[in-house]
Amino acid sequence: MRATALAPPPSAPRAAPPGDLREFVGRLEAGGHLTRVRETVDWRCELGARARAERAPLLFTAIRGYPGWQLFVNGLFGRAAIALALGLDPEAPDRALAAACRRRLAAPVAPVMAPSAPFLACVAEGGAVDLLRLPVPQWSDQDAGRYLGTWHLNITRDPETGERNVGVYRMQVLGPARATVNAMAGTGLGAHLAKAERSGQPLPMAVAIGVPESCVIAGAASCPRGMDEYVLAGALQQAPVELLRLEATGLDVPAGAEIVIEGRILPGRRARDGPFFDYCGHVQTQPAAPVFAADRILMRQGAIFRGAAVGVAGGEDHQLFAFLARFGLVDFHGPRGKQRLQNVLWKHRRFRAIQAMGQARRALFPRRRS
Ligand SMILES: Cc1cc2nc3c(=O)[nH]c(=O)nc-3n(C[C@H](O)[C@H](O)[C@H](O)COP(=O)(O)O)c2cc1C
């Protein structure tokens, strides 16, 4: 009927997707989905414990030793938050949200280049580079140290073809300008690094923290063959991702990023990453993780740090993978049979079973890479 045809479907976009993390945080707050934590918290374990206990988006506004900094976690906790991140109706029922995303995935949207970016406002280079000037938490008392990369993007290019890879690989701070990059061998970054190392060259890498959530979702996804992660992010939010090409490395990062770190993965260098309290609710250690050397840190004025306290069943990383599994976009780079089982478990939100599988692997293969 005509009247029905004219009414917008329940999953129709309410607004354009949030252009950056700040806008997303603002929309969460306006919708009553955000809690501001105003009392002082310690980056050492306290912040992570609080994030795990409160299963809702949190903005920490007072971090001990880091005056002026804010830190955002749990951004994708719940269906309403995922809908808001993609510019969809947070009130829409789950099935309508999934249907809207399925339609969107069939309509790729290419990124566009921006002339400039707010993160060019503050730049530290050379001896001024100090990763611990950022409020990097130790997320759990079981972690070996402070984890810079828990909800971010790692951007590299294939040294031979120039093809781009955007992924999410955890990063532990090793020193003022050094961090691990825990990319597994089968990943896009792993393949780029293998090629760089064959020719003895460092692999340029950019780390982008505090990016639109669509980009983290796409970075964690197993991209359909031939599709770039930024195109996938554009499809999910039905708006192009705005990118800025970095001067030093020529890598493209989301222009709205809060913090960007440019540098290189050192050829042939490995260091221990972990123990780290990981998605499976247990510690994982990577005895020989690639090592990243940071050359430049760029940030917006009043940058907001973004991270995730993983390890709880149903945490935001689990929510992300459950979302992706509905569209067949999860790839944990393991044997095929195991992957199939994992996908079913993600899809049906059997988070404890996923955790049990991760822990069983650790018990069976204690020496294998995490
Ligand atoms: C919060 C979070 C942390 C992740 N940490 C890692 C990690 O440390 N190592 C890894 O190989 N994959 C990790 N992943 C999964 C990868 O991002 C995912 O497998 C992605 O598909 C990799 O992209 P690629 O296949 O293009 O390399 C993580 C994902 C999320 C959401």
How would you explain this protein's 3D organization?
The chain has 370 residues and is α+β, with helices and mostly antiparallel strands. It has two domains: 2-105, no CATH class; 112-309, Pnp Oxidase, Chain A (Roll), CATH 2.30.110.10. It is built from eleven helices and 16 strands. It has helices at 2-6, 21-30, 46-53, 79-85, 94-105, 188-198, 213-220, 229-237, 316-325, 336-347, 351-364; strands at residues 35-37, 58-60, 70-73, 112-113, 122-125, 147-149, 152-157, 164-167, 171-175, 178-180, 203-209, 242-245, 252-254, 259-277, 283-299, 304-306. The strands form three sheets. Strands 5, 6, 7, 8, 9, 10, 11, 14 and 15 form a nine-stranded antiparallel β-sheet that branches. α7 (213-220) packs across α8 (229-237) and α9 crosses α10. It is globular. The termini are far apart. Flavin mononucleotide binds at residues 150-151, 165, 167-170, 182-184, 187-189, 219-222, 308, 310, 317, 320, 331.
Tell me briefly what this model is.
The protein is α+β, with helices and mostly antiparallel strands.
Secondary-structure map:
Elements: H1 2-6, H2 21-30, E1 35-37, H3 46-53, E2 58-60, E3 70-73, H4 79-85, H5 94-105, E4 112-113, E5 122-125, E6 147-149, E7 152-157, E8 164-167, E9 171-175, E10 178-180, H6 188-198, E11 203-209, H7 213-220, H8 229-237, E12 242-245, E13 252-254, E14 259-277, E15 283-299, E16 304-306, H9 316-325, H10 336-347, H11 351-364
Parallel strand pairs: 1-2, 3-16, 4-12
Antiparallel strand pairs: 2-3, 5-15, 6-9, 7-8, 7-11, 9-10, 10-15, 11-14, 12-13, 14-15
Bound molecules: flavin mononucleotide.
